[in-house]
Q: What sequence folds into this?
């Protein structure tokens, strides 16, 4: 059960009543504007109570909201997008969508993790959990981008890499590991955007980038809060507490130097204004690509190297915390 | 420092009784009672059933390295960036494992020679926080790989890890990116990189440098995989076969490039290091 969906129900009901009153107000000669104003004030108050400041656990639910914009919402907002399919080895993994796109004046390779909104879509997309063949499709597209000098734009949204028997048989570890090296070596700009849930290594496989963008209420974590709670307290019910501990919000990750840009969301979350948020993300990515356009291949790979080289919390023998240098 | 001196200097920090007091030990696989000096002479492989015992990083380095060993990154130590507390506070867990294993973190890195060849070596230790990878493991391994690049020496990592360390959150996950970037540089410079996967190698370690090597050697019966057994069983709601995710399972599917299923893969991995 999604707690954001539950809490929204009251708001949506209010929204419906306000709309009804508006219709009545317009068609009959009765003046309902007082009631409408009252309801609108109540609406604003409840909205503020629910969304004023979200806890880490609430953000997890926001990131998983069934109506939250998915990778394909962003891809279809590009000036052009042609999908490429398959890993040329085993099959086409529908949890990965990607291909050639046009963003402003620029040709790019876009790659996204795609989850479904309902059961049927989720079966096709495997709930956004990518299998080895999906990661091999990612490698293929990233190598293509490198060969033709096209920037790589990724959209991350997965609860984690697929943990099934088939994925182990086809070497899930190797598939992700290869993606990491491919992204580290790609001689082109890479911009990754965490649009929903960034689940551990399965998300990182698309996210070694010159610049990492994150939506305000997206989350990006080393483990799912439920998984962490099950391991640490043997109680998946403590997931809310684990979410707080894991420091998985955009603001936390910006502080650690993992996330470079945060895109603010409308009150109530990205799904309340899909065209608006999609436009803002695409513009942000475009501006970052502009700023990277003049860099040489080695400046780009070196830039990524030093970004990740500096991440970590260390203590020197003398006891003071140190930042490592490249 | 020469290996015996180095070991002696490090052994003073550890609980000697755990390792050295008992002269006899029982093989956990076939229950054969083994004489410790024999076991150690056989590279900690059961003389009866070829079970590969889990080894501490100290024992592994003493086994692999001949001559001198110069540690890298020994002054890089953990901190508590998330001020993490679950059943215990993270610094308390670190202190307990430091005491228990004699290690200051879950990996030991350095420069030395194997069979007369100069190499850069990193050895993970399952006895320190289950070999999990936090900021220090990432930093030490990266320093080691950078030394290999700078000195143009082959790099070897012996893995034993449950994956990324939860207590350091996303900082732990990012070590996968850091080490992978260093591996990429080594690969571009055409410097050989070899991994020896020991029991267990899973999660973020398996999904990064463990499977990025030019040559991957797996020890017999080692548990190697991406997702933990419990996670898979919960996802698919059925029991997994015993052999699932063992080194042999990977070998049959052509995943790990080399595996000695002959008598003793430790001797074999030894041989590979000499290439």
A:
């Amino acid at each position: 059960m999604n707690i954001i969906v539950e809490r929204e129900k009251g708001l949506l009901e209010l929204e419906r009543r306000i709309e009804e009153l508006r219709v009545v107000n317009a068609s009959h000669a009765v003046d309902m504007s007082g009631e409408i104003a009252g309801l609108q004030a109540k609406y604003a108050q409840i909205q503020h109570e629910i969304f004023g400041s979200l806890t880490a656990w609430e953000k997890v639910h926001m990131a998983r909201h069934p109506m939250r914009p998915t990778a394909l919402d962003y891809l279809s907002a590009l000036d052009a997008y042609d999908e490429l399919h398959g890993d040329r080895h085993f099959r086409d993994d529908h949890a990965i969508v990607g291909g050639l796109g046009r963003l402003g004046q620029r040709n790019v390779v876009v790659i996204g993790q795609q989850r479904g909104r309902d059961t049927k879509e989720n079966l096709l997309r495997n709930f956004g959990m990518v299998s080895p063949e999906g990661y091999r499709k990612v490698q293929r597209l990233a190598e293509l981008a490198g060969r033709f000098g096209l920037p790589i734009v990724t959209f991350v949204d997965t609860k984690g890499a697929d943990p099934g028997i088939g994925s182990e048989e086809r070497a899930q570890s190797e598939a992700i590991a290869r993606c990491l090296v491919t992204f580290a070596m790609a001689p082109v700009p890479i911009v990754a955007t965490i649009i929903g849930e960034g689940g551990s290594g399965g998300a990182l496989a698309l996210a070694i980038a010159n610049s990492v963008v994150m939506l305000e209420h997206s989350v990006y974590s080393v483990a799912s809060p439920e998984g962490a709670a099950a391991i640490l307290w043997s109680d998946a019910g403590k997931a809310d507490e684990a979410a707080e501990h894991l420091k998985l919000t955009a603001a936390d990750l910006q502080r650690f130097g993992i996330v470079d840009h945060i895109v603010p969301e409308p009150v109530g979350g990205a799904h309340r204004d899909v065209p608006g948020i999609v436009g803002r993300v695409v513009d942000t990515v475009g501006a970052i690509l502009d700023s990277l356009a003049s860099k040489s291949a080695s400046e780009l790979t070196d830039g990524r190297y030093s970004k990740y080289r500096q991440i970590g919390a260390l203590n020197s023998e003398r006891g003071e915390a140190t930042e490592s240098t490249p | 420092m020469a290996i015996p001196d180095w070991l002696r200097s490090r052994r003073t920090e550890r609980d000697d009784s755990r390792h050295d007091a008992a002269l006899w030990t029982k093989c956990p696989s076939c229950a054969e009672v083994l004489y410790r000096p024999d076991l150690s002479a056989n590279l900690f492989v059961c003389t009866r059933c070829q079970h590969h015992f889990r080894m501490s990083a100290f024992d592994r380095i003493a086994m692999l390295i001949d001559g001198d060993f110069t540690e890298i990154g020994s002054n890089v130590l953990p901190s508590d960036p998330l001020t993490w507390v679950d059943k215990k506070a993270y610094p308390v867990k670190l202190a307990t494992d430091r005491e228990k294993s004699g290690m200051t973190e879950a990996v030991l890195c350095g420069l030395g020679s194997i069979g007369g060849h100069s190499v850069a070596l990193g050895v993970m230790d399952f006895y320190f926080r289950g070999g999990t990878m936090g900021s220090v493991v990432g930093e030490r391994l990266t320093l080691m790989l950078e030394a290999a690049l700078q000195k143009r020496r082959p790099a070897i990592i012996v893995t034993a890890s449950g994956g990324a360390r939860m207590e350091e959150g996303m900082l732990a996950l990012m070590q996968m990116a850091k080490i992978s970037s260093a591996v990429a540089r080594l690969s571009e410079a055409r410097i050989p990189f070899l991994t020896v996967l020991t029991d267990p190698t899973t999660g973020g370690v398996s999904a990064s440098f463990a499977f990025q090597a030019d040559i991957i050697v797996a020890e017999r019966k080692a548990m190697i995989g991406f997702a933990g057994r419990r996670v898979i069983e919960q996802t698919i709601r059925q029991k997994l076969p015993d052999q699932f995710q063992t080194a042999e399972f990977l070998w049959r599917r052509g995943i790990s490039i080399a595996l000695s299923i002959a008598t003793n893969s430790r001797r074999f991995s030894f041989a590979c290091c000499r290439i």
